[in-house]
Structure formats: structure tokens, C-alpha cells
Specification:
Number of domains: 1
CATH class: Mainly Beta
Structural class: mainly beta
Radius of gyration: 24 Å
Largest sheet: 10 strands, antiparallel, barrel
Helix content: 10-25%
Order of helices and strands: HHHEEEEEEEEEEEHEEEEEEEEE
Distance between the termini: 21 Å
Strand content: over 45%
Number of helices: 4
CATH topology: Lipocalin
CATH architecture: Beta Barrel
Shape: elongated
């Protein structure tokens, strides 16, 4: 794949994870990071989990489009496009039920229901961060994007090994995109169990076992500046430059273990898989973050109120694990393959792709 094409595919992957034009604006709306670090971490987890779930589900897609491994030395190169779908039920959550401390609460008598990142594009309830009776900061929870379909492009190579086994590899080097960067790798193995069944060459049927793992790491720049309505008494730092290094680091891992079957006809192949999938997203903050503190009866921003990313606990989103079932078809014209399938799981996925294959 040429360098310009590589960059376009990578940019699309990165855009899919947190920095599409809609998402990028959401991650500039991070006033909730002014609250206690433990509360901020809980909010981040609840807010981004729908996209993290859908993205992890998409990473588990397009590993196979037949249960027949390549012969020794055979190979394929396949470009695919997976779309993880967020259910409507994940569009909102209740901030009063995510375990926030008493220092952070909804003001007034309004509801605590707010949008997740995939939910309605409207501002949520106002929150107050307090120390005793003194209010340190107020802010509204950020709006959602109204976007429930998370695209996950993929480029993959499959290589035939001895003993009815095929190695599958996915890889993208770290590439800077829009102030951040993205990288990805994945590896999978498919092994034929049809070869152990007597008379297997008489049937147009293949059965295999598959296991694959994909990991994507992305760095997203964010920006939290001191509240202009609160007194700033910094003495050793310049707030205009000191808070310019803020970053959200996300790692998404996806595991797929499946039994695969396919019926291989002359031009078309029908295939299905049944197995177990698990995804996990880890998020951590990096950089310097301003935080208001109470000094006597005065709320101010000072040097000793600056937090670093290490002050915020790492956020682990155990997205989902459980049964995964998919079915699809592949059309092969000479060495060209075209496929499409649908995966049913906690977060469903639609996949399609195009490749070249030499058996």
C-alpha cells in the first residue's frame, strides 16, 4: 500500500476513535476535569464507554471470510470496513448513579440524566464541585454527538503455514494525526480441523478454529484552562503555556476466539462463526491540569493546585465479553475477493471488504 493511501486509512481509523469533527469538540469540553480526580475518572468512563464498546467490537471484525486456511505459501491482502453499532440504550446515563463523591453533585432539583458521547447533542445538567459549603467550580456535563455508528477500517495479510494453519497479521505504525497519533497491531491464527475428518476432500465444507487479538493505541490532545471568572495567583508558572501538554491516551484491545465453518462453492462461499469475544479500553491522562482550591474563604488557582496526569487514576473500561456469532458470504472472481457479513453480539457489527487471494 502506498504511503499516501496508508496515511488516509490511518487517518480514518484515528478519526473513528474520538477525534472526528464532532468528537474532537467533545474532548475540548472537559470542564469535569476540574473536579476531584476520582470523580473525573468515573465521568470519563461513563461518557466514552459506548464508543469504546463499539470500536472494540469493530476491531474484532473481518478476521476471516472463509474457514479454509491458505496452503503453504498462499496469501491474501484484504482491506475491510467494519461498523460497530451503539444501541440507543447507551445514549444516556445518570451521573447520580456512577459512584461520584459528595463533593460533586447536580445543582438544583433537575434530573441527573446526561448524554454519553453517542447520545443527544444537548448540554447536560449543571454540576457543582464543592469543598464544604464553598463552591470551587460549576460546569455543565458535555453534550453527545448523536453518532452511533463507529467505522473501523482495517488492512490485513494472511499467510499459509504448514499443518493446515494460517497466520493473519494487522499492523499500522505510529503516525501523527491532527496533533495526536495512532498505531495498531494484531495477530491471529486459524487452524483447520476439517483435515482430521475422514473423507474431508469429498465435501465442499471447511471447519477451523480461530483466535485473534488486536490492539490500537491513540493519543488525543485535550485542553483544560483555568476558569477566567476565578482568581489566578500563579507565581512560578505561565498558565498560557503550562497547560498546553494535555493529552488523553486510549488503548483498545479486542480478543476473538471462534469456531468457523464455510461452504465453498465455485464462485461464492458462505461462512459463519460462533465463539467468544472480549474487549477492553484503558484510558489515562497526561500533562498538567489547573484545579481550583479553597484558601481560607477564597477560591483561587495557584501553583499547588496544578494536577498532573498521574493524579488521575487510570480508567479501565471492561467493555463486554460473551457470545459472538456472525454469518456472511464471499464472492471470488479469479484472485479478487469481495465479502460482507453481520456479527451479533452485545455491540453488533456490519463488515464488508475487498482483497486479493492466492490459495
Amino acid at each position: 500500500m502506498s504511503k499516501p493511501t496508508n496515511r488516509r486509512v490511518t487517518a480514518l481509523i484515528f478519526t473513528s476513535l474520538f477525534i472526528s469533527s464532532a468528537a474532537f469538540s467533545q474532548f475540548n469540553n472537559v470542564d469535569f476535569l476540574r473536579s476531584a480526580p476520582a470523580d473525573a475518572a468515573k465521568f470519563v468512563q461513563a461518557y466514552i464507554s459506548p464508543w469504546a464498546n463499539a470500536f472494540g467490537a469493530g476491531l474484532n471484525g473481518s478476521w476471516y471470510n472463509t474457514a479454509k486456511p491458505h496452503k503453504l505459501g498462499g496469501f491474501d491482502v484484504t482491506a475491510s470496513f467494519n461498523v460497530g453499532m451503539v444501541p440507543s440504550s447507551a445514549g444516556t446515563f445518570d451521573v447520580t448513579k456512577i459512584g461520584l463523591s459528595s463533593a460533586l453533585s447536580v445543582t438544583g432539583a433537575g434530573s441527573g440524566t446526561t448524554s454519553s458521547i453517542s447520545g443527544p447533542n444537548k448540554q447536560g445538567p449543571q454540576m457543582a464541585y464543592k469543598s464544604g459549603v464553598y463552591t470551587l467550580a460549576t460546569f455543565n456535563t458535555p453534550p453527545g454527538t448523536n453518532w452511533k455508528y463507529i467505522p473501523v477500517p482495517m488492512v490485513q495479510v494472511g499467510i499459509g503455514l504448514p499443518l493446515g494453519t494460517e497466520l493473519k497479521v494487522r499492523f499500522l505504525p505510529k503516525i501523527p494525526i491532527r496533533g495526536g497519533d495512532v498505531s495498531m497491531w494484531g495477530v491471529g491464527l486459524m487452524h483447520s480441523i476439517m483435515q482430521y475428518i475422514p473423507g474431508n476432500k469429498l465435501l465442499p465444507l471447511d471447519l477451523s478454529l480461530f483466535a485473534g487479538y488486536t490492539r490500537l493505541t491513540a493519543n488525543v490532545p485535550i485542553s483544560l484552562q483555568p476558569d477566567g471568572s476565578v482568581t489566578q495567583n500563579y507565581t512560578t508558572i505561565d498558565p498560557l503555556t503550562y497547560f498546553s501538554n494535555q493529552n488523553l491516551n486510549a488503548m483498545v484491545g479486542a480478543l476473538n476466539i471462534s469456531a468457523i465453518g464455510s461452504v465453498n462453492l465455485k464462485i461464492i462461499t458462505f461462512y459463519a462463526g460462533l465463539g467468544y469475544s472480549k474487549t477492553k479500553t484503558s484510558v489515562k491522562l497526561q500533562g498538567n491540569f489547573p484545579s481550583p482550591k479553597l484558601y481560607g474563604t477564597s477560591v483561587e488557582y495557584r501553583d499547588d493546585g496544578v494536577r498532573t496526569g498521574a493524579d488521575f487514576s487510570n480508567m479501565n473500561i471492561e467493555n463486554f465479553s460473551g457470545l459472538r456469532a456472525n454469518a456472511g458470504f464471499r464472492i471470488k472472481l479469479a484472485v479478487i475477493t469481495i465479502f460482507a457479513d453481520y456479527t451479533r453480539a452485545q455491540y453488533n457489527v456490519v463488515s464488508t471488504g475487498l482483497g486479493i487471494s492466492f490459495r
